[in-house]
Amino acid sequence: MMKSTQWLTHDQLAFCVLKIYPELICGKDFWTSHPIERNQLAQTGPAIIAIWDTEVTQPTIKQIRRIWARHFEECLLGEAELNAAQTKLTLLAIANQHVNDYQDLIDIEEATDSDLKRQKEWKKFRANLNRVNQQNGWPLQPEWPQQPDDHTAR
């Protein structure tokens, strides 16, 4: 079971507001923020509703706390899904670049046996990335495939 965090982030506060008022649009009808430490950009306090620009009544802290207590696992799961998907896309972009670089060498008939081997390793890595979201631990504890070593200068 996931635990709630000490403070809500601005995204988590927006999640709670949208649970109460699903018809509102964050960034149009309301804005959330949280204080940060300047040097490290670390959150230093609870998120707040910075601007409320709608006719409906702004939710109270008590309402927000009730919504968070009821729905925090859903929010944290959504955050984990987003983070895992972003990591997967980043790794796929890296893999695609390597596969394409080696394919260029193959296409112009300048690939060595080593290049062919490396391309195959990167293709295997890419295939394993495409299966990572089928794991039991996805998205909370994904086991990322090992990225191939690639020391080829390009």
Automatic annotation (TrEMBL):
Residues 13-71 form the Bacteriophage SP-beta YorD domain. Coiled coil: none annotated. Residues 133-154 are annotated as: Disordered. Pfam families: Caudo_TAP (PF02413), XkdW (PF09636). This is Bacteriophage SP-beta YorD domain-containing protein. The lineage of its organism: Bacteria, Pseudomonadati, Pseudomonadota, Betaproteobacteria, Burkholderiales.
